[in-house]
TrEMBL record:
Stored InterPro entries: TMEM230, TMEM_230/134
Annotated organism of origin: Nematostella vectensis (Starlet sea anemone)
Name of this protein: Transmembrane protein 230
GO CC annotation terms, alphabetical: autophagosome; early endosome; endomembrane system; Golgi apparatus; late endosome; membrane; recycling endosome; synaptic vesicle
Entry function: Involved in trafficking and recycling of synaptic vesicles.
Keyword Phosphoprotein (UniProt): no
Membrane-traversing stretches: 34-56, 68-90
The entry's keywords: Cytoplasmic vesicle, Endosome, Golgi apparatus, Membrane, Synapse, Transmembrane, Transmembrane helix
Membrane topology: Multi-pass membrane protein
Principal subcellular localization: cytoplasm
Protein family: Belongs to the TMEM134/TMEM230 family.
Subcellular location: Cytoplasmic vesicle, Autophagosome; Cytoplasmic vesicle, Secretory vesicle, Synaptic vesicle; Early endosome; Golgi apparatus, trans-Golgi network
Domain of life: Eukaryota
Taxonomic lineage from the root: Eukaryota, Metazoa, Cnidaria, Anthozoa, Hexacorallia
Entry-linked Pfam families: TMEM_230_134 (PF05915)
Length: 108
């Protein structure tokens, strides 16, 4: 049996192995192409919805009545995601809590 004097002890380190720099989150990149696409979808969708609404209410000539529902449907399909992503980009730009540019999908 070994005596107590032959056992080598080492001092425990006070360092937990983490560096403060590893917890710093880098600033997210702004997805400019996705934001431009969202603005385009929002704008064209709004225009199509307005024209479709004017066709539906009869402010345009009756000969264009067959284009009413396609304009309303396409306008809705373009307006909804465009508005959603423009709103996300605006809230992230203003710095509202819970919104970040990372929430917007990028094309990379």
């Amino acid at each position: 049996m070994k005596s107590r004097n032959s056992v080598r002890y080492q001092k425990l380190s006070n360092d937990d192995g983490f560096v403060d720099a590893q917890f710093i989150k880098p600033e997210p990149k702004v997805p400019w192409r996705a934001i431009c696409l969202a603005i385009g979808l929002f704008t064209v969708g709004t225009i199509l919805l307005v024209i479709g609404s004017l066709l539906f209410t009869g402010h345009f000539d009756v000969k264009y009545a067959d284009r009413t529902y396609p304009m309303l449907i396409l306008g809705s399909i373009m307006f909804i995601p465009g508005f959603y992503h423009v709103r996300l980009a605006y809230y992230a730009w203003k710095g509202y809590r819970g919104y970040s540019f990372e929430d917007i999908p990028d094309f990379d």
